[in-house]
Design goal:
single chain, alpha/beta, TIM Barrel, 3-stranded antiparallel sheet, 13 strands, globular
Length: 349
């Protein structure tokens, strides 16, 4: 009943929200959903207290649909996914130091394509403030998404990620390493097997230490990939993944490609750089999803994200081997009922 009412409110409000600047509309909606989610959590609805049905990398979740990274960049909004009946959520991307991100405007709607272009640039409160906010826990299972500060040297990346993992080890159910955003200069260049091995060796020791400190199992670690991987790098990564010290893979981040869009060339040029999400991302996501599942085999967790705007796309992800999926742009264009529709697809499997 609650989700039906929320969907009706969404349909009534969307035309007005789409007249607003995209980022201002996002903050308004996130604030409202956070208040609703907080009330639902107090009532014991849509929270960890709900009966978990399945496990992702050993963590119990109530359904296989999560809120993708980027929607909740600040843990202060951690109740948003409770309002929308998500089973889990990613928080972040978080970096060691707080940073404002790129100049505004930095989110743009492509309505004809049911897509977004964003160049946010990892705006976030930084590790320590985020941890203070999360000190009383999260209302549902969360993956802490860790990335790199814009001005941090690449040589210090392993230490930067290790610090975040140590700090959040008491509150994170999973960790996601995000080196695949197109909006931090040089970040995608770090997504190569040799460098990743060095990072994962460093993170292994931190995970083992934090597990002993908190007397809990080793925190599962996922790696997020992007769909613009060129050959032969894509083949190198696919060959490397089976032996990598990872519990799962998230496919995929946004794309910098602009082909096949309904939006005019002049509109695309006016918007400029950024990562494209939404319906045009679906085929690129699907190709990489199939390749990654074949590479990692059936046992490790595979999360699908990108271009999921209806139950048909959710079904394609499931049939390609995804254990769960995450939504962001689909919620903006289709509303809260998309969560329920996508969750129903996985219940049918």
């Amino acid at each position: 009943m609650f989700q039906t009412v929320l969907q009706l409110l969404f349909r009534a409000a969307r035309p007005l929200l789409f007249l607003m600047d995209a980022e201002r509309a996002h903050h308004l909606v996130a604030w409202l959903l956070n208040q609703m989610g907080r009330l639902r959590a107090l009532a014991g609805r849509g929270s960890r207290s709900a009966e978990p049905q399945i496990h992702l990398s050993g963590v119990a979740v109530r359904n296989q649909v999560g809120l993708a990274a980027g929607f909740v960049k600040d843990p202060a909004y951690r109740y948003v996914p409770v309002a929308l009946d998500f089973g889990f959520a990613e928080i972040g991307t978080l970096t060691r130091l707080a940073q404002p991100g790129n100049p505004r405007p930095r989110i743009f709607r492509l309505k004809a394509d049911e897509a977004l272009i964003n160049r946010m640039g990892f705006n976030n409160p930084g590790y320590h403030r985020a941890l203070r906010t999360l000190s009383d826990g999260a209302p549902l299972p969360v993956a802490i998404n860790l990335g790199k500060n814009k001005r941090s040297p690449a040589a210090g990346l392993a230490d930067e990620l290790a610090e975040g993992m140590m700090l959040f080890s008491g509150v994170a159910d999973w960790f996601v390493i995000n080196l695949s955003s197109p909006n931090t200069p040089g970040l995608r260049d770090l997504l190569e097997p040799r460098g990743l091995d060095r990072i994962l060796r460093r993170l292994r020791s931190v995970r083992e230490l934090s597990a002993r400190m908190h007397e809990r199992p080793l925190a599962p670690l996922w790696l997020k990939l992007h769909p613009d991987l060129p050959d032969p790098l894509r083949q190198e990564l696919l060959a490397w993944l089976p032996e990598a010290d990872l519990d799962g893979v998230v496919v995929s981040n946004t794309t910098v490609a602009r082909d096949g869009l309904r939006a005019s060339r002049s509109e695309i040029e006016r918007i400029g750089s950024g990562g494209l999400s939404g319906r045009p991302l679906a085929q690129r996501r699907q190709e990489l999803l199939l390749q990654v599942r074949e590479a990692i085999g059936p046992r490790r967790t595979l999360i699908a994200v990108g271009g999921i705007l209806d139950s048909n796309e959710a079904r394609r992800c499931r049939d390609a081997g995804a254990d769960a999926l995450e939504l962001y742009t689909g919620i903006i264009y289709r509303g809260p009922m998309l969560v329920r529709e996508a969750a129903a697809v996985f219940r049918q499997s």
